Amino acid sequence: MPEFWVSSGHHLCRRTPDGRLGVTDALLLAWLARPEITPPPEACFAERALHARLRKTPRAPVRPGEIAALADADARENWTFFIDFRDRLLAADSVEAAWLALVRDRVSLPPIFLDQLVHLILRNALDGCADPFTLRAAELMFRPQKATMLNGALTLADAEVIEARAVDPRANPLAAMLTPDPFTELDVMTAESAGTWWSRSDAHSMGLNLGGEPLSRAGLAAAIAAFVRHLFGAAVDVSPLNALEDPDFRWCVGLDAEGSAIGDALWAGERLADETHARLIALFRMDFPPDAPLAPKAFGRPCYLLLGMDREKTVRMKPQNLVAGLPFAARPCVA
Length: 335
Prior knowledge:
There is one protein chain. By secondary structure, the protein is α+β, with helices and mostly antiparallel strands. It is built from 13 helices and eleven strands.
């Protein structure tokens, strides 16, 4: 099986007996090397000393006064977030347990920290997956996407990649006029080209035809199912839908802010405006096994999952909504 998502850092973790990911010093050192944490050349002595000490002993306790002594306000904020994040990771038994605790406790952290954990969890949950469509679609769960219409189909591309290729017309109008649309040169995954994804999985440079390629929607459904099975221990089945036609519609979860708003409107019996309906880009049905501990209202019924895009055609999927919104009667038990 080819390697993929090396940038997740999964190879730096230890595998626990129950198949979770344990935090190691090597993983902490990788996070300490991130540009948000690495002191810039102009950093004060206190910040450089703190960083150097943690590079030697990544689990060393850090007192609030040490962070307060940093000269730069942004550095103080970054270090406050990072140490809180690190300490919560170390207090948990696994990366999975730490992420669930962060979500349940609604801890305020920069999205990048949560995205990194989801990246790791998905790499673990999808270990052994041989389908590039599932793996590419899973990237929606930890990397924002930009949407566009290509050849009549809604196509997603990594937002960071598109931003890097684009030229700001305000900064350089002439260059913006001469630079091709970053979407037109996008290499969109097809059944024939899917095999090339493995060699560039960490580049996130491949587009996903979500609107016109059934394998893409099936891949996202499979990724969601694997994520839920891994965290909740429930053998759910997720399948893509073209429309919601259930007269006994009882439970839904928005996979992003737009999907949540659309789900709330449907729950209230509202008729969606054409503009709102156009922002619904994917719809799924989740079925639960008979022994799943569900809330009484949801027992024996499916849950519908809605994914949307905002007015700027950005897709920001929030896998934490699955923790908060799925109708499990008890919290997932993760060692």
